[in-house]
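Complex record, two chains
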Amino acid sequence: MKSPDQTEARTTEMTMARLCTDVARMIGESPEEIADDDNLVDHGLDSMRMLDLVSRWNDDGVAVPFSDFIERPTLRDWWELVQRHQGRDPEVS
Amino acid sequence: MSRGGQQRRPLSEAQSGLWYAQRLAPDNAAFNTAHALWIEGDLDVDAFVRAADMAASEVDALALRMVEGEDGPLQWVDPAWRPRLELIDLSLDADPAETARACMFDERSKPVDPTRDRLACQRLFVLGEARFVWYLRVHHLATDGYGMALFGERVAERYCVDKDPGISQGRAVSDTGRALGSFGAVLDEDAAYRDGDRRQRDAAYWREALAGAPAASGLEAVAAVPASGDCHRWVQPLDRKLREGLLALSQTLRQSWPDVLTALTADYCRRHVGAPESVVGVPWMGRLGSASARVPAMVMNVLPLRVRESESFATFIEQTAIALMKGRRHGRYRGEQIRRDLGLVGGQRRLHGPLINVQPFYRPLRLSDTLETRLEILSTGPVDDVTLGFRGDASQVLELEIEANPAIYTAAQVEAHATRLATYLQAAIDTHARGGTLADVALATPEEAQRYVFDVNATAHPVPDATLVSLFEATMTAHPEATALTTPGRTLSYAELEQRTRALAQQLRERGVGRESIVAVALPRSLELVIALVAIQRAGGAYLPLDSAQPDERLARILASARLACVLTDDDDLHRFADWPTLVPTDWRQQPEKAPLASSPRPQDAAYVIYTSGSTGEPKGVVVEHRAIVNRLEWMREQFDIGRDDRILQKTPATFDVSVWEFFLPLLAGATLVVAPPQAHRDPRALVSLIREYRVTTLHFVPSMLAAFLSTPASHGLELDRVFVSGEALSAELRDRFHTVIDGELFNLYGPTEAAVDVSWWAASRDDRSRSVPIGFPVWNTRLYVLDERMRPLPPGVAGDLYLGGVQLARGYLGRPTLTAERFIGDPYVPGGRLYRSGDVARWRKDGALEFLGRSDDQVKLRGLRIELGEIESALLAAPDVIRAEVMLRQDLPGEPRLVGYVQLDPAQIIPGSDTLRGETRDEAASERARQLRGRLTSHLATQVPDYMVPAAFVVLETWPLTANGKLDRRSLPAPTRELGDGMAPRTETEREMATLFARVLGAERAPGVDADFFNLGGDSLTAVHLVLAIQQRWQRDIGLGAVFSSPTVAALAALIDTPTMATDDGLGPWIRLTPDETGEAPLFAIHPAGGIAWNYRELARAVGRPAFGLQSPALDPGQALPASIDELACDYVERIGALCPRGPVHLLGWSVGGIIAQAIAVRLRELGRKVGLVALLDAYPAECWRNEPEPDPVAALRALLAIAGHDPERHPELDTRDKVVAFLRRGDSTLGNLPAPALDGVVRAVTDTNRLIRHHRHAPYDGTLLHLRAALDHVERPDLKAGLWQLHATRVEALELPLMHAEMTGRDAAARIAPLLVERLQRIDVSIGEMA
C-alpha cells in the first residue's frame, strides 16, 4: 500500500512515495507495477543499482547501512528500515 | 547449524572450490585474507577487546573446523576455536609499527591447513599511548571481503555501543545493535540452490552465454601460472577530473557509473589482447536478498564477462551493462563450475582474464568521534592474473587498486598499467565528449608513444656514401696479397680476385651491362660464383641469383619478369636458358684489359635482385640498392669487429639473402671467404671438417639447421668467434644448447629480404635468460615500429604489426608498382620517410628489445625458407579436378613441421564404381585411390613450385569447417593421419602383416598406418606383451618388450623383423627408455621399485611428456654381482645417469623402494656437483621404517610380486609356493606372468636383495626438496607412515595426499592425477634452475 501524499512538504526526509519512485526509476518501471511485497530482485534490481540507491539515500541522511538493505529487498521491508532509522513507528501512516 | 552446535555439515559450493585449491597447494598462503586497521587516539583497549571478542562469538564462520570425510570435506563450529583478540604490547619496542608490520606479514604468510589450523586470528598491537593496529586474518574458506567488512563493522558497532550505551550509530536502540546472522542459514541456502531447478537454469544460461567464447588471456601474453605468495599491489587515487567525467558520462549514457567503469576497463583489457572479443572476470557478491546478507561467510563468486568491440561507444557500454545485468541474475552459479562445464579443467586454462572489481562504496570504519582510523588491506586472496580494482563512491573519492600475480607481472609493469589505465579512462571520456568511438582511443600513453617510436629508434649513425663496389675495390687495393677466397683445392688472393673480376666485368660491359642492368646467375657454389657476383657489380649491374633446383615454369616466369641483360650459368644448365644471352665460365676472360673500369654504380643503383614467394602465385623480385646493403654490412663489420683475421664461411645458397653478407662482408673487411662445396650445407659433419680445417671464425645457421648441427657429436667443443642465426625463431632451448656444445658467441638477427637482409639483432649470450629470445634492437639508421591497425604505436607487451623504416628498405618489387605501393608506404612519424609493412607480428619489451610473435598473414617459414601458402594454393588449383585448395603448415608431431594440402575435388570427375574393386576391401581401395591422387598432385606441383613447397601430405575434403563469421576455420582442418597421410599404407608384406597384428592385439577394426604409435593407439605394457608374443608366433622371432617400448610403430618393428640379425631387447637391461620424447627438457629418471623392473612407470612418464628413462636393478641379470649397499647401488645408477645425460639438471622419481634409492641418488649427484631438480617419492618411506620388518623368504618375495603385478597379496593366501604364484600370474595374463623363467628368477632376486639392502641403509641428508605423494587410502596398519618421516633426511619436504592405494600409484588413473602435479613442478624447477645458472 502506498501513500502518495502529494501535499506533504518536500523535506530531506524519506517518504514511502519517494522510496517507490527512486526504486522504480532505478529498475526502469513505473511505481504502480511494484507491489509492496515483491522481491525487487525479481524486478531486475541488482546489487550495483542498489548500491547507487543506498549511497544516495545515505547522502540524504538516511543512515541505514547497505547490509541491512540487502537482506530483504522489498518495498515494505525497506520502508520499515527507513522508518526505524528516522525514529518513527514502523507502522505505515 | 545452531550456535554452539557440533553438527558436521558439508562445505558450500563456494567453500569446496577453495578447499581443493588449498589442498593441492598446501604451501600456498595466498588464501589468507587479512587487513589492518590503524587507530590513533584514546582507544579504550578493554572495551575494544570486549567488542572484538563478542563480535567474534557471533560469527560461526571464524570458528570453523574442517575434516576430510569419506564423501568430501566436512565442517563444524567449535566454540573453542573462536579467535579471541590477542593483545600484543609493542610500546617498548624500538620501532613498534615496523615490528607490528613484520609480525602481521609473518602471520599471514603462514599457509593454513584447514584440517588442523584455526581459520581466523585477530590481534591488537599496542604501538604507543595513542597508537594501535588491529590485525584480522581469516582464511578464504571462512569469509570473503564483504564478510571481513561486516565483521569489522560489527566490532566497531559493539565498541560504540559499549562506549555509549543507548546510542548506536545514531540509532535510538537500547540493545547492542543488531547481531550478525546465522551461518547455518547460509549453508541451508546453498544446499537448497544445489538441489534446485534454479541451478539448472543458471547452468544453461552460462553454457549458452559462453558458447564460442575466445580463450582467456591476461594483460601480458604469458601462459597462466598459479597464484602463490604475496601479490604486487599498487594503489593510486584517480583525480577529480576523471571522477567528474565518469559521472557525467554515466549520466549521459544513462547507465550506472560502476557498470560504465567496468565496461571501459574491460575494453582496456581487450585492447591488450588485440582481438575483437575477450573475456574478463567480474565478482558477484551474492548477498542481495540472501540469508548471507549479514553473515560473514565465503559467498563471493567470479563470473566471466564477454567483451566485444562495437562501432558505437554507447552501444558498447549498453551491451556490456546488459551482459553484466544478465550475468548477475544467474550469478550464484559458481565460476569454478562454469569452468568445468566448458571443459577448461586441466593445465592452466582459465575461464577469464583480468578481474575487474568496482566497489562503489566508501565508508571508513568509524569507531568513535575521537579516534582516527585507516584501513589497510593486506591480502584479499589468490590473484591468478591481475585484479583491476576501484574503490570509492566516485563523487568524493575513487582509488585504483591493482593486484597482480608476481609470477606474471613485475612491479614495474603494474605501475605502468596503473598509469596507462588511468590515461585510457580519461581519454575514453574525452573521446566520447568529442563524439568519437572507443577505437579512437590510443592504447599507449603519450610518453609510451614517444619512447617506442622515437627513443628506441635513435639509431642514426654515419655511414660512408659508398657502394659495395667502392668499398671492396678499396680492400683489393689495400691488401692485394691477402687471401680473399678459398675452397678445397683453390685459393685466390685479393689481387687475383681483382683481376679476374675486372676481366669479367669488362666482358659484361661489352655485352651492354651497366647501371641498373640485371644479370641472372645460375652457378653452383664455387669461386666462380663469387667472381660472377663481384664482376656484375663492378660492371655497374645488379645480380639475380637463380636456384637451378626450381622447375622450369617457375624459372621462366622469373626470367620473363626481369629485363635481363645476360645469364651467367654453366654447361650443365645452359640448355635451360636457351632464350637468353648466356656466358659460361669457360668463356670468361681471365685477364683484364689495362684500362680501368669506366663506370661504377652509384649508391642509389640496384645491387641485387632476389626473388621470393608470391601470395598470388607469382614470385616477386626484391630490388635492393647499394646504399641499403652498405648500411647493413658496415654496421655488421663494426658492431662485431670483423677484420682481416676473420674467416667467414659461405654456405648459404645465393637465392637466400643471408648469403649477401657471407659473400661481401669479407671483401669489405679484408677477411677471407671460405667457400663450401656445393652440397656441404646439408651435411653437418662436412661442415665441421670445413670449419676445423679452415679455422672458420664466423658463420650463419637457420635455427633448424643449427639444431641438427649441434646434434652431431663432431660439433661438440668447436670454437667459433661468432655464429649468426636468422630466418626462423630461435628458441631459448636452442640458445642454451648452443652454449653447452660450442664455445662462441651467438647472435640472433631478424629481417626480410625487403630490408637488406637484417634490421635487428640480439646477443643470445650464455647469460641471456630470456624465455623468448628477442629479435632485439634496430641496426644503424633503421626504425622499427609496432603499430595497431590504425598505425598508432602500442605499449610494451602488446602485440602489433611490425613496420620497418630507414635506409635499408628495398626500392621495391621489380616490375610490380602496385604491389610495391601496397607494401612500402609513407612513414606517419618521419616526414618523407618510408615504411615497409613486414606482415610480422611483434611486441616491445621494456628494455627496448623486440620480440617476434609470428605472421599476420599466410606466409610461413619452413626451415628458414619463405613460403607464401597462396603460391602453393594457386598451383594446386591449376591441377585438373581440384576446385578448391588450402595449404597449412602443421606440426602434428612435435619438432616436425610440414606442409599439408587440403583439396576439394570436382565430384563429376571422380571415377564411378571405383569403390568396389573386386577382391579388395573398401579400405584398401580407398588407400590405393589416395596413393594415386597423391602421386598426381605431387607431380603436378613439382612443375610449378620448388621442391620445398610441395606438401608432405594431402587431405581430400568435401566440406570445409567454418568459423562463426563464415570464414575458413583453419584450426579445425583435420590432421592428415587418417586420410592421404604420408607413409600411411604398408609398403612391404612384413609391414602389412605387422599392421594387422597391431589391429588384432589392440582390438581395432582397421589396420593402422605404418607410422602410428602402438601406445597412442591405446596399447599398454600388457598388450605390448601380447604383441611380442604374437610376433613370436608369426615370425619365430622374440624381439623383446624393450623393442616395443623404444620404437613402437609398425614400420619400425617390421624393419626389426626384416633385419637378419638383431639382439633381443627383453626390457630387463640396466635402463629402459620410457618415452620417445625428445623435447630437449631435462630428463626424468624413474627408479625401479622392489621387483627391480621399471616398466610400471610408462603411463606416468608418457602422461608427463618429457624425456624419461627407467633405471632397473642389476639383480635382474643373474650374471651380475649384487651391490653391497644402497649407496653403492646409487653410485652405479648415478653412473648410468651420467652416460645417458652427461650435462645439465636431472629429475628423479621413485615409487616405494624406488623412492628410497632416489633419495640416495640425489645425495650422490649433489656430491658430484650435478644439478638435481625434482625428487618425487611416490608413497616411499625412509629405510629406518623397515628395519624391524622380518626378512622376506623367497616365497614372500614372490608374493611381493603379486603386489607389483597389481594384485593384493592378502586376498590370495593360497598362493604359498613359487609355482602357484607364477601359475597365477601367468593365468592372469599379467606382464610379469609372461616373463621367461630366468627373468622371473631375476625379479625374485631383486626383491630379496633390495629388501636386505634397504634394511641396512642409513640415509645421508639431501640438501634440497623432496616431493612426497602419499597414498592416502592406504597404510591402515601403519599410520605412522607419513611424509614427515623424510624431514630428517632432507632440507625440505613437500607433502601431497592423493586418494589412492599404494599399489595403484603407477597405474593409469593415478598417472592422470599425478602427472599434472609433477609437470607443474618440473616446469617451475626448470625455469628456476635456468635462472640460477
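Note: The radius of gyration of chain B is 37 Å.
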